[in-house]
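Late entry, evening session. Most of the bench is empty. Finally got around to the prediction I had been postponing all week. Sequence below, unchanged from the version circulated by S.P.
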Amino acid sequence: MPPKRSLSPDHSPPPPTTYTSSAITDRASRFLAIYSPTLRTQQLQSIPSISSATHRITASRIPSTQRSLSPSQQPLYTSTHDDDGEKYGGKAVASVLSDLNIPGSLVVARWYGGLMLGPVRFEHIKKCAREAVYKYMDSPEQQRVKKIRIEEDDQKRRKELIRVLPERDGSISVLRNLLAEKQSTPSPSPNTESEASPAKVPEYSKLPLKTLENLERARDATIGWILAQIEKAEVAQKTSSDAG
């Protein structure tokens, strides 16, 4: 297969919004990947440093305009790919974006060296593509974005726990009363010390996320234990009734 472009790559630097892999050379063929979170595939193909490549294989994965009916499901994406003469190469590049669950565009340039490489060429294509994406994921800007997202998620989680923990407390109170009835335990009189000094309700809004998560686990464990005791009491009642 004769090369359709020169084998000499242009060494001019790529645009600042791109992330470039190391080159892989195998039997005179060279592979190089460039990823961008913002540029289109056509823009990546036009980067001067890969203009001489025999193939400029592309794939993109962008957020879809369609929305899932369930808010808990993952966002929907629209994926495209272009072999640019390297049969099945586009699918190999697209699989990297899908496997890493990341949006953006990728181009893998191949300078054909005159020898057929066989299936190993797809490993080179995917390895270069992954490296380019990893460079983006490890970039200071992306790390800053990740930190902001984590902080936002923590705030949402904290607000949710502040809302649900009082509900857990209410459930525990109801279940304890039910357990007392099942076990025929008399309720405390109105003048008892426990009634006069009810348990202090934590001010959940003042607690850090880690503490709230620990309390949620403790409340769930308590509810599970009470439910098990209620079931035992019901079995005991049934056994006693059958014996009578």
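Two things to note before I forget:
The longest strand covers residues 55-63.
Residues 189-197 have pLDDT under 50 and may be disordered.
Will write this up properly tomorrow.
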